[in-house]
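Forwarding the complex inputs:
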Amino acid sequence: MSRINAHYLDLPGSYLFAEIARRVQEHGARDPQKRVIRLGIGDVTAPLPPSVISALHQAVDEQARQEGFRGYGPEQGYAFLREAIVRDAYQGLGIDPDDVFIGDGAKEDLGNFQEIFDQGCLVAITDPVYPVYADSNVMAGRAGPADSLGRFQGLIYLPCTADNNFRPDLPRRRPDLIYLCYPNNPTGAVLSRDDLARWVGYAREQDCVIFYDAAYEAYITEPGIPRSIYEIPGAREVAVEFRSYSKTAGFTGLRCGFAVVPSSVRGRGPGNALVPLRDLWLRRQTTKYNGCPYIIQRAAEATHTPQGKKETRAIIAGYQENARRIREGFQTLGLTVSGGVNAPYVWVRLPTGLDSWGFFDALLNRLGIAGTPGVGFGPSGEGHFRLTGFGTSADTQEAMERLKGFNI
Amino acid sequence: MSRINAHYLDLPGSYLFAEIARRVQEHGARDPQKRVIRLGIGDVTAPLPPSVISALHQAVDEQARQEGFRGYGPEQGYAFLREAIVRDAYQGLGIDPDDVFIGDGAKEDLGNFQEIFDQGCLVAITDPVYPVYADSNVMAGRAGPADSLGRFQGLIYLPCTADNNFRPDLPRRRPDLIYLCYPNNPTGAVLSRDDLARWVGYAREQDCVIFYDAAYEAYITEPGIPRSIYEIPGAREVAVEFRSYSKTAGFTGLRCGFAVVPSSVRGRGPGNALVPLRDLWLRRQTTKYNGCPYIIQRAAEATHTPQGKKETRAIIAGYQENARRIREGFQTLGLTVSGGVNAPYVWVRLPTGLDSWGFFDALLNRLGIAGTPGVGFGPSGEGHFRLTGFGTSADTQEAMERLKGFNI
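Prediction (whole assembly, two chains):
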């Protein structure tokens, strides 16, 4: 008898976005005339910018010639990209290219990073939250079974609601690992420098490790909001940061991201010995990963050039304009809306009594608009709905036209 | 105190090929004049074939246009590639495109697949063996500490030596999971249909799951040797198969492979309920993976066209010719050599008393040839040395020139 990992059976039946895709497909089969506008899954729609396309073509041509061909690359990623990242995003923050690990995207890195910790570690996540943080810890046996609300009994939940302005309070019970994502998916909230400093101080005092998901950093528009957790003094000893090219440069289909793991962040081994997480993550990646494709690392490098930055900023500005329209559209219906200013996500509060899957079905079936039900992100997401600015401008405008006068 | 996964501390200090790279680099610093010929790590050297290059350019151009742009793909891989694989490699073997999962390579899939099993599963590996099988299970806590020979006390080792013609005997104690790799890395041995049928029969009788690594299938030259484990009746209930485009089509730097997980292969859940592994692997992949890049899946598809197959076959023939030269070169020194006929690897038996790291250093420092010490693949690899046919033809010929008259 080959026993399976029974923790998998504690998971909800399907991954949130797979369930959404299923319902959208079913709707399409029932009503093939009405084109569904997808503002649900956070997938980008703008084609890759010219700098990226040109870097890809050039790298492909290198792979066609004996003298330019590259086989296995360094598992940690090529130095040219790790150096470009530090130059462009971590200047003056004490981060070294050796701390940077190139990967296939933030989903992969965030899903796998928990592996280097003990199974007994206590994990804190915000609620609502990106499902990967919870699900990967459920699989690892850190969460136990879920209650009737879908809340895993072994996790610490940090509610983020209108009551606390979507900024979580410090936990009452000490966790080992804390997942924070700012700008936030799904609420679109951000943390001020003081907010984030409180978390760094707490982690230092309580000997916790923060997994800081900064995948939406490029959407920050207001001044004074930290773009990296390493802007906070002392974070280099307690925080690992994850970033992605997906939403920054349209890489959802190309797959590239990175983790920053300063060698000063350490966990406890047997006898309480301090062990640098960087060494463990390097061992994990060299053993189970063979590096992000060379041609894609060259594409990522292109986004750090002045021209590449100009092009990606223009695309992001378009998505931000979409988010603004969505905010206004739902506000016009009299609903309370947050996010969409420093984040591509708009978080809509539904009228009391409306559940979020019900609203999902209504919006899909009556208007042909696919969003994401808030409860898919956790129990505190119930009564909310997420929309993204990642559609095309034309689709977003049409969706807001369809929304006009919608009788909820 | 955030406790780390202490099982990592049971691992050898560094991944085998990272250690080899370190010694080669050190040698280069000491003796910059002598160019090192690398016949150690199994990395290909021929540039990507024209069909693959052309598919890449075309897919990149699609990504540049609004109407052709593709963001997130299906986590399991695009249907066009899964269908091409079944048509090309599994015709008549009862494999459905739904059973195929596209991934970033066999290393990743083989490293991650054990996650869906219970931590208590007993694992059998051949010895010598590709290090990822052992190391990923060490990390998962299935192996315990190693003895003085580097043998993990919790694993079942199946010695493959000249005494059994490099074909492992059935285990004396029943394992839950069995890793088999044929054509074999590192010994270059193959299993006949009868040999493989014996393993499938054992797994069926004992309720085991076989992880069948067929990454080198394209190197089989002799008739009658099974290319897929599914050629054996009954394998569809007990075996998962892993393949890669790395050695078949030069994708070591592009990263693409696939796992075949028929829904009829099942493990045991609570109460001995049978659970299809396919469901668990789908959940794993949808949660922690976002799919292989679209452009790379198009490149992989190109290798299944008649022209793509013609091109890749020519490249493989070149590597096979290299392997033949290496065999002859070492045989001329009076050494016993196996492999290199149905596999790109040549396995050299060292004269009694010579240890494999010592031979590695001698070959590197005296001739400037980097191979792989047999002991790096496990205790039974001691006294052996692996060389690969993946160098360029010119390099391989020069290496064999340097080898002439080598005084071991």
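The domain at 6-48+309-403 of chain A is CATH 3.90.1150.10 (Aspartate Aminotransferase, domain 1).
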